[in-house]
Amino acid sequence: MKTNIKLAWRNLWRNRRRTIIAISSIVFSVLLASWMRSMQEGSYNSMIENSVKFYSGYLQVQDSAYWNERTLDNTFKATSELKEKIAKIKDVTLVANRVESFALAANHLKSKPVMVMGIEPEAEDQITNISSKIKTGKFLKNGDKGAIIGRRLADFLHLEVGDTLVMISQGYHGISANGLFRVRGIMSHPNAEFDKQLVYLDIETARDFYSAYGLSTSLVIMTSDHYQVKHLKKDIAKILPPNNTVLTWVDMQPEIMQLIESDRGSGLIMLGVLYMVIAFGMFSVVLMMVKERSREFGVVHAVGMQKIKLSIVVFFETIFIGLIGCTIGLVISYAFCLYFFYNPIPLSGEMATAMTQYGMEPYMFFSMKSSLFYSQMILVFTISVFISIFPIYNISRLKITEAMRN
Protein backbone atom coordinates (compact mmCIF):
# COMPACT_ATOMS: atom_id res chain seq x y z
CA MET A 1 0.00 0.00 0.00
CA LYS A 2 2.86 2.36 0.85
CA THR A 3 4.35 1.80 -2.62
CA ASN A 4 1.00 2.56 -4.28
CA ILE A 5 0.73 5.85 -2.37
CA LYS A 6 4.26 6.84 -3.41
CA LEU A 7 3.54 5.99 -7.05
CA ALA A 8 0.30 8.01 -6.94
CA TRP A 9 2.06 11.06 -5.43
CA ARG A 10 4.88 10.97 -7.98
CA ASN A 11 2.44 10.48 -10.86
CA LEU A 12 0.68 13.72 -9.88
CA TRP A 13 3.79 15.83 -10.41
CA ARG A 14 5.02 14.18 -13.58
CA ASN A 15 2.54 16.39 -15.40
CA ARG A 16 2.28 19.49 -13.22
CA ARG A 17 0.06 21.44 -15.58
CA ARG A 18 -2.58 18.70 -15.71
CA THR A 19 -2.54 18.32 -11.91
CA ILE A 20 -2.76 22.09 -11.33
CA ILE A 21 -5.76 22.31 -13.70
CA ALA A 22 -7.53 19.52 -11.77
CA ILE A 23 -6.74 21.08 -8.37
CA SER A 24 -7.79 24.54 -9.58
CA SER A 25 -11.22 23.25 -10.62
CA ILE A 26 -11.78 21.92 -7.09
CA VAL A 27 -10.45 25.11 -5.44
CA PHE A 28 -12.81 27.20 -7.52
CA SER A 29 -15.71 24.86 -6.68
CA VAL A 30 -15.13 25.12 -2.90
CA LEU A 31 -14.67 28.90 -3.15
CA LEU A 32 -17.86 29.43 -5.16
CA ALA A 33 -20.00 27.20 -2.93
CA SER A 34 -18.60 28.75 0.29
CA TRP A 35 -19.09 32.28 -1.04
CA MET A 36 -22.72 31.58 -1.90
CA ARG A 37 -23.54 29.97 1.45
CA SER A 38 -21.68 32.59 3.49
CA MET A 39 -23.51 35.43 1.73
CA GLN A 40 -26.88 33.69 2.13
CA GLU A 41 -26.45 32.95 5.85
CA GLY A 42 -24.94 36.40 6.44
CA SER A 43 -28.09 38.03 5.07
CA TYR A 44 -30.20 35.85 7.41
CA ASN A 45 -28.03 36.78 10.41
CA SER A 46 -28.42 40.47 9.55
CA MET A 47 -32.20 40.08 9.19
CA ILE A 48 -32.50 38.31 12.56
CA GLU A 49 -30.22 40.76 14.35
CA ASN A 50 -32.11 43.77 13.01
CA SER A 51 -35.46 42.19 13.89
CA VAL A 52 -34.58 41.33 17.49
CA LYS A 53 -32.87 44.69 18.09
CA PHE A 54 -35.89 46.41 16.57
CA TYR A 55 -38.11 45.39 19.46
CA SER A 56 -38.30 41.87 20.89
CA GLY A 57 -34.74 40.95 21.91
CA TYR A 58 -33.43 37.39 21.53
CA LEU A 59 -35.47 36.03 24.46
CA GLN A 60 -38.12 37.29 26.87
CA VAL A 61 -39.21 36.07 30.28
CA GLN A 62 -42.92 36.72 30.85
CA ASP A 63 -45.87 35.64 32.93
CA SER A 64 -47.29 32.43 31.44
CA ALA A 65 -50.53 34.19 30.44
CA TYR A 66 -49.04 37.44 29.08
CA TRP A 67 -48.24 36.44 25.50
CA ASN A 68 -51.84 35.40 24.79
CA GLU A 69 -53.42 38.26 26.75
CA ARG A 70 -51.15 41.30 26.91
CA THR A 71 -52.64 43.22 29.80
CA LEU A 72 -51.07 44.70 32.93
CA ASP A 73 -52.96 42.14 34.99
CA ASN A 74 -50.57 39.51 33.57
CA THR A 75 -47.41 41.21 34.77
CA PHE A 76 -44.92 39.59 37.16
CA LYS A 77 -42.38 40.66 39.76
CA ALA A 78 -38.93 40.50 38.15
CA THR A 79 -36.77 40.37 41.27
CA SER A 80 -33.13 41.44 41.29
CA GLU A 81 -32.23 37.86 42.30
CA LEU A 82 -33.90 36.48 39.16
CA LYS A 83 -32.12 39.03 36.97
CA GLU A 84 -28.77 38.15 38.54
CA LYS A 85 -29.32 34.42 38.03
CA ILE A 86 -30.20 34.94 34.36
CA ALA A 87 -27.27 37.35 33.82
CA LYS A 88 -24.83 34.72 35.16
CA ILE A 89 -25.89 32.13 32.57
CA LYS A 90 -23.24 31.57 29.93
CA ASP A 91 -23.73 33.58 26.69
CA VAL A 92 -26.22 36.04 28.26
CA THR A 93 -24.95 39.57 27.59
CA LEU A 94 -27.82 41.74 28.88
CA VAL A 95 -31.04 41.52 30.92
CA ALA A 96 -33.49 44.47 30.94
CA ASN A 97 -36.94 45.13 32.44
CA ARG A 98 -39.86 46.43 30.42
CA VAL A 99 -43.41 47.56 31.13
CA GLU A 100 -45.58 47.66 28.01
CA SER A 101 -49.17 48.85 27.72
CA PHE A 102 -51.43 51.29 25.87
CA ALA A 103 -52.85 54.73 26.52
CA LEU A 104 -54.71 57.58 24.89
CA ALA A 105 -52.29 60.45 24.19
CA ALA A 106 -53.63 63.96 23.69
CA ASN A 107 -52.67 67.58 23.18
CA HIS A 108 -55.28 70.35 22.89
CA LEU A 109 -58.03 69.07 20.55
CA LYS A 110 -56.24 66.00 19.12
CA SER A 111 -55.84 62.55 20.64
CA LYS A 112 -54.42 59.23 19.48
CA PRO A 113 -54.02 55.68 20.90
CA VAL A 114 -50.36 55.02 21.65
CA MET A 115 -48.13 52.16 22.76
CA VAL A 116 -46.33 53.03 26.00
CA MET A 117 -43.04 51.30 26.78
CA GLY A 118 -41.43 51.70 30.17
CA ILE A 119 -37.71 51.01 29.84
CA GLU A 120 -34.40 51.01 31.67
CA PRO A 121 -32.83 53.74 29.48
CA GLU A 122 -29.19 52.60 29.47
CA ALA A 123 -29.99 48.90 29.02
CA GLU A 124 -32.68 49.54 26.39
CA ASP A 125 -30.32 51.71 24.39
CA GLN A 126 -27.95 48.73 24.11
CA ILE A 127 -30.81 46.65 22.71
CA THR A 128 -32.59 48.98 20.28
CA ASN A 129 -30.07 51.84 20.00
CA ILE A 130 -32.81 54.43 20.54
CA SER A 131 -30.43 57.30 21.30
CA SER A 132 -29.18 57.24 17.69
CA LYS A 133 -32.77 57.74 16.47
CA ILE A 134 -33.29 60.97 18.48
CA LYS A 135 -33.54 63.85 16.00
CA THR A 136 -34.40 66.70 18.39
CA GLY A 137 -34.00 66.89 22.15
CA LYS A 138 -32.20 64.23 24.17
CA PHE A 139 -32.59 60.66 25.34
CA LEU A 140 -34.02 59.63 28.71
CA LYS A 141 -31.95 59.20 31.85
CA ASN A 142 -32.64 56.85 34.75
CA GLY A 143 -35.49 58.26 36.85
CA ASP A 144 -36.50 60.77 34.15
CA LYS A 145 -40.14 61.94 34.35
CA GLY A 146 -40.30 62.92 30.66
CA ALA A 147 -41.12 61.03 27.45
CA ILE A 148 -39.63 60.21 24.05
CA ILE A 149 -42.11 60.14 21.14
CA GLY A 150 -42.00 59.41 17.43
CA ARG A 151 -41.75 62.15 14.81
CA ARG A 152 -45.06 61.22 13.14
CA LEU A 153 -46.84 61.15 16.51
CA ALA A 154 -45.37 64.53 17.41
CA ASP A 155 -46.53 66.01 14.09
CA PHE A 156 -50.05 64.62 14.56
CA LEU A 157 -50.38 66.04 18.09
CA HIS A 158 -48.45 69.24 17.19
CA LEU A 159 -45.86 68.63 19.89
CA GLU A 160 -42.24 69.75 20.10
CA VAL A 161 -39.47 69.23 22.65
CA GLY A 162 -40.48 70.87 25.93
CA ASP A 163 -44.24 70.57 25.31
CA THR A 164 -46.50 68.53 27.59
CA LEU A 165 -47.96 65.18 26.55
CA VAL A 166 -51.22 64.16 28.25
CA MET A 167 -51.95 60.43 28.61
CA ILE A 168 -54.99 58.62 29.99
CA SER A 169 -55.25 54.85 30.42
CA GLN A 170 -56.27 51.98 32.67
CA GLY A 171 -53.65 50.81 35.13
CA TYR A 172 -52.95 47.66 37.10
CA HIS A 173 -56.17 45.90 38.23
CA GLY A 174 -58.35 48.54 36.58
CA ILE A 175 -56.95 51.55 38.46
CA SER A 176 -57.41 54.83 36.59
CA ALA A 177 -54.16 56.09 35.06
CA ASN A 178 -53.50 59.66 33.95
CA GLY A 179 -50.42 61.80 33.74
CA LEU A 180 -48.59 64.76 32.22
CA PHE A 181 -45.18 64.15 30.66
CA ARG A 182 -42.68 66.65 29.33
CA VAL A 183 -41.42 65.72 25.83
CA ARG A 184 -37.65 65.19 26.26
CA GLY A 185 -36.92 64.10 22.71
CA ILE A 186 -38.44 63.28 19.35
CA MET A 187 -37.13 60.26 17.47
CA SER A 188 -37.40 59.12 13.88
CA HIS A 189 -38.20 55.41 14.13
CA PRO A 190 -37.52 53.36 10.95
CA ASN A 191 -40.83 51.51 11.43
CA ALA A 192 -43.64 53.84 10.35
CA GLU A 193 -46.20 52.24 12.70
CA PHE A 194 -43.90 52.61 15.71
CA ASP A 195 -43.14 56.19 14.68
CA LYS A 196 -46.86 56.97 14.76
CA GLN A 197 -47.67 55.48 18.15
CA LEU A 198 -44.64 54.68 20.32
CA VAL A 199 -43.98 56.55 23.60
CA TYR A 200 -40.93 55.72 25.74
CA LEU A 201 -40.96 56.37 29.49
CA ASP A 202 -38.45 55.53 32.20
CA ILE A 203 -39.58 52.23 33.75
CA GLU A 204 -40.21 53.69 37.20
CA THR A 205 -42.22 56.53 35.67
CA ALA A 206 -44.29 53.99 33.71
CA ARG A 207 -44.84 51.85 36.81
CA ASP A 208 -46.00 54.91 38.72
CA PHE A 209 -48.31 55.92 35.84
CA TYR A 210 -49.94 52.47 35.72
CA SER A 211 -49.76 51.85 39.52
CA ALA A 212 -47.80 48.67 38.69
CA TYR A 213 -45.14 49.16 41.35
CA GLY A 214 -42.25 46.69 41.11
CA LEU A 215 -43.91 44.82 38.23
CA SER A 216 -42.73 44.10 34.66
CA THR A 217 -44.43 42.75 31.58
CA SER A 218 -41.17 41.15 30.40
CA LEU A 219 -37.48 40.66 30.97
CA VAL A 220 -35.63 41.13 27.67
CA ILE A 221 -32.51 38.95 27.32
CA MET A 222 -29.74 39.53 24.79
CA THR A 223 -26.92 37.30 23.60
CA SER A 224 -24.10 37.77 21.13
CA ASP A 225 -25.29 35.08 18.70
CA HIS A 226 -28.79 33.94 17.74
CA TYR A 227 -27.50 30.35 17.52
CA GLN A 228 -27.31 30.36 21.35
CA VAL A 229 -31.04 30.89 22.01
CA LYS A 230 -31.96 27.18 22.14
CA HIS A 231 -29.61 26.31 24.97
CA LEU A 232 -30.35 29.63 26.71
CA LYS A 233 -34.07 28.88 26.68
CA LYS A 234 -33.44 25.54 28.41
CA ASP A 235 -31.06 27.03 30.98
CA ILE A 236 -33.36 29.96 31.80
CA ALA A 237 -36.45 27.74 32.06
CA LYS A 238 -34.72 25.73 34.82
CA ILE A 239 -34.49 28.73 37.16
CA LEU A 240 -37.89 30.34 36.50
CA PRO A 241 -40.81 30.25 38.97
CA PRO A 242 -43.74 27.99 37.92
CA ASN A 243 -45.91 30.90 36.70
CA ASN A 244 -43.26 32.29 34.31
CA THR A 245 -42.20 31.22 30.83
CA VAL A 246 -39.36 32.06 28.43
CA LEU A 247 -39.90 32.78 24.72
CA THR A 248 -37.29 33.01 21.98
CA TRP A 249 -37.39 35.41 19.05
CA VAL A 250 -38.65 32.48 16.94
CA ASP A 251 -41.64 32.08 19.27
CA MET A 252 -42.37 35.82 19.19
CA GLN A 253 -41.71 36.41 15.48
CA PRO A 254 -42.41 33.11 13.66
CA GLU A 255 -43.04 34.92 10.36
CA ILE A 256 -39.35 35.86 10.14
CA MET A 257 -38.28 32.24 10.61
CA GLN A 258 -40.80 31.13 7.98
CA LEU A 259 -39.43 33.71 5.55
CA ILE A 260 -35.86 32.54 6.20
CA GLU A 261 -36.75 28.86 5.80
CA SER A 262 -38.57 29.44 2.51
CA ASP A 263 -35.67 31.50 1.16
CA ARG A 264 -33.16 28.95 2.44
CA GLY A 265 -35.06 26.22 0.58
CA SER A 266 -34.80 28.10 -2.71
CA GLY A 267 -31.15 28.79 -1.94
CA LEU A 268 -30.47 25.08 -1.43
CA ILE A 269 -32.07 24.34 -4.80
CA MET A 270 -29.72 26.86 -6.41
CA LEU A 271 -26.84 25.30 -4.48
CA GLY A 272 -27.86 21.89 -5.81
CA VAL A 273 -27.73 23.25 -9.38
CA LEU A 274 -24.31 24.73 -8.57
CA TYR A 275 -23.06 21.36 -7.33
CA MET A 276 -24.26 19.71 -10.52
CA VAL A 277 -22.26 22.23 -12.54
CA ILE A 278 -19.27 21.64 -10.24
CA ALA A 279 -19.60 17.85 -10.59
CA PHE A 280 -19.72 18.00 -14.39
CA GLY A 281 -16.76 20.39 -14.44
CA MET A 282 -14.69 18.08 -12.25
CA PHE A 283 -15.80 15.07 -14.29
CA SER A 284 -14.65 16.74 -17.52
CA VAL A 285 -11.20 17.35 -15.98
CA VAL A 286 -10.92 13.70 -14.83
CA LEU A 287 -12.16 12.52 -18.24
CA MET A 288 -9.42 14.58 -19.90
CA MET A 289 -6.81 13.04 -17.57
CA VAL A 290 -7.98 9.49 -18.28
CA LYS A 291 -8.10 9.93 -22.06
CA GLU A 292 -4.71 11.64 -22.03
CA ARG A 293 -3.17 8.72 -20.16
CA SER A 294 -4.79 5.80 -21.95
CA ARG A 295 -1.51 4.92 -23.73
CA GLU A 296 0.36 5.23 -20.41
CA PHE A 297 -2.10 2.83 -18.77
CA GLY A 298 -1.71 0.38 -21.66
CA VAL A 299 2.11 0.40 -21.48
CA VAL A 300 2.16 -0.02 -17.67
CA HIS A 301 -0.28 -2.89 -17.88
CA ALA A 302 1.70 -4.47 -20.73
CA VAL A 303 4.89 -4.58 -18.64
CA GLY A 304 3.12 -6.51 -15.90
CA MET A 305 1.23 -4.12 -13.58
CA GLN A 306 -2.11 -5.63 -12.63
CA LYS A 307 -5.30 -3.69 -13.32
CA ILE A 308 -6.30 -3.76 -9.66
CA LYS A 309 -3.00 -2.19 -8.60
CA LEU A 310 -3.21 0.37 -11.40
CA SER A 311 -6.77 1.22 -10.28
CA ILE A 312 -5.60 1.70 -6.68
CA VAL A 313 -2.81 4.06 -7.79
CA VAL A 314 -5.20 6.13 -9.93
CA PHE A 315 -7.73 6.17 -7.06
CA PHE A 316 -5.08 7.57 -4.72
CA GLU A 317 -4.16 10.18 -7.33
CA THR A 318 -7.77 11.36 -7.42
CA ILE A 319 -7.94 11.38 -3.61
CA PHE A 320 -4.75 13.46 -3.42
CA ILE A 321 -6.11 15.94 -5.97
CA GLY A 322 -9.37 16.16 -4.00
CA LEU A 323 -7.61 16.64 -0.65
CA ILE A 324 -5.19 19.28 -1.95
CA GLY A 325 -7.90 21.14 -3.86
CA CYS A 326 -10.36 21.11 -0.96
CA THR A 327 -7.75 22.20 1.60
CA ILE A 328 -6.51 25.09 -0.55
CA GLY A 329 -10.11 25.98 -1.42
CA LEU A 330 -11.05 26.01 2.28
CA VAL A 331 -8.18 28.35 3.19
CA ILE A 332 -8.81 30.71 0.26
CA SER A 333 -12.60 30.79 0.73
CA TYR A 334 -12.24 31.45 4.48
CA ALA A 335 -9.82 34.32 3.87
CA PHE A 336 -11.97 35.65 1.02
CA CYS A 337 -15.19 35.63 3.07
CA LEU A 338 -13.36 36.95 6.15
CA TYR A 339 -12.43 40.08 4.20
CA PHE A 340 -16.06 40.69 3.22
CA PHE A 341 -17.19 39.83 6.78
CA TYR A 342 -15.28 42.89 8.00
CA ASN A 343 -15.93 44.87 4.81
CA PRO A 344 -19.55 44.13 3.79
CA ILE A 345 -20.60 45.01 0.25
CA PRO A 346 -22.56 48.31 0.20
CA LEU A 347 -25.87 48.36 -1.67
CA SER A 348 -27.20 51.28 -3.65
CA GLY A 349 -30.34 52.46 -5.41
CA GLU A 350 -33.83 51.28 -4.56
CA MET A 351 -32.63 48.22 -2.65
CA ALA A 352 -30.58 50.38 -0.27
CA THR A 353 -33.51 52.77 0.20
CA ALA A 354 -35.91 49.91 0.97
CA MET A 355 -33.53 48.34 3.52
CA THR A 356 -32.99 51.70 5.23
CA GLN A 357 -36.75 52.25 5.52
CA TYR A 358 -37.07 48.93 7.33
CA GLY A 359 -34.32 49.89 9.76
CA MET A 360 -31.69 47.63 8.19
CA GLU A 361 -28.21 48.62 7.13
CA PRO A 362 -27.86 48.77 3.30
CA TYR A 363 -25.04 46.21 3.07
CA MET A 364 -24.58 42.64 1.91
CA PHE A 365 -23.27 40.81 4.98
CA PHE A 366 -21.34 37.53 5.19
CA SER A 367 -21.37 34.78 7.81
CA MET A 368 -18.23 33.14 9.22
CA LYS A 369 -19.94 30.13 10.77
CA SER A 370 -17.35 27.35 10.50
CA SER A 371 -19.81 24.67 9.35
CA LEU A 372 -20.54 26.70 6.18
CA PHE A 373 -16.95 26.18 5.07
CA TYR A 374 -16.03 22.66 6.09
CA SER A 375 -19.41 21.33 4.88
CA GLN A 376 -18.64 22.66 1.37
CA MET A 377 -15.19 21.08 1.56
CA ILE A 378 -16.67 17.72 2.56
CA LEU A 379 -19.32 17.84 -0.17
CA VAL A 380 -16.86 18.74 -2.92
CA PHE A 381 -14.42 16.07 -1.69
CA THR A 382 -17.25 13.51 -1.71
CA ILE A 383 -18.03 14.48 -5.31
CA SER A 384 -14.36 14.05 -6.26
CA VAL A 385 -14.27 10.59 -4.62
CA PHE A 386 -17.45 9.60 -6.46
CA ILE A 387 -15.98 10.81 -9.75
CA SER A 388 -12.84 8.67 -9.12
CA ILE A 389 -15.04 5.65 -9.91
CA PHE A 390 -14.84 6.61 -13.61
CA PRO A 391 -11.06 6.10 -14.09
CA ILE A 392 -11.24 2.85 -12.09
CA TYR A 393 -14.06 1.63 -14.35
CA ASN A 394 -12.09 2.76 -17.41
CA ILE A 395 -9.01 0.82 -16.27
CA SER A 396 -11.07 -2.31 -15.55
CA ARG A 397 -12.15 -2.34 -19.23
CA LEU A 398 -8.66 -1.52 -20.52
CA LYS A 399 -7.48 -3.42 -23.59
CA ILE A 400 -3.72 -3.27 -24.06
CA THR A 401 -3.68 -3.27 -27.87
CA GLU A 402 -6.25 -0.50 -28.23
CA ALA A 403 -4.68 1.60 -25.47
CA MET A 404 -1.16 1.39 -26.97
CA ARG A 405 -2.43 2.38 -30.44
CA ASN A 406 -4.00 5.62 -29.09
How is this structure best described in words?
There is one protein chain. The strands form 2 sheets. The protein has a 6-stranded mixed beta barrel with strand order 2-3-8-5-7-6, surrounded by 4 helices. Strands 11-12 form a two-stranded antiparallel sheet. The model has no long low-confidence stretch (mean pLDDT 84). α1 crosses α12 (307-342) and α2 runs parallel beside α12 (307-342). It is built from 16 helices and 12 strands. By secondary structure, it is α+β, with helices and mostly antiparallel strands. It is 56% helix and 19% strand. It has helices spanning 2-12, 16-56, 80-87, 121-128, 151-157, 192-197, 203-210, 229-239, 249-252, 254-292, 294-302, 307-342, 349-357, 370-387, 389-396, 400-405, and strands at residues 59-63, 92-107, 110-119, 134-137, 147-150, 164-170, 176-187, 198-202, 218-223, 244-248, 345-346, 363-364. It folds into 2 domains: 2-52 and 256-405, no CATH class; 65-242, no CATH class.
What is the CA-atom radius of gyration, in angstroms?
31 Å
Q: Calculate the terminal CA-CA distance, rounded to whole Å.
A: 30 Å
Strand order of the largest sheet: 2-3-8-5-7-6
Beta-strand percent range: 15-25%
Element-by-element helix/strand order: HHEHEEHEEHEEHEHEHEHHHHEHEHHH
Helical percent range? 55-70%
- Mean pLDDT reading: 84
Beta-strand segment tally:
12
SS element count, helices: 16
Main sheet, how many strands, which sense, barrel?
6 strands, mixed, barrel
Structural class: alpha+beta
Which stretches are poorly predicted, pLDDT < 50 over at least 5 residues?
Answer: none
Cα shape: elongated
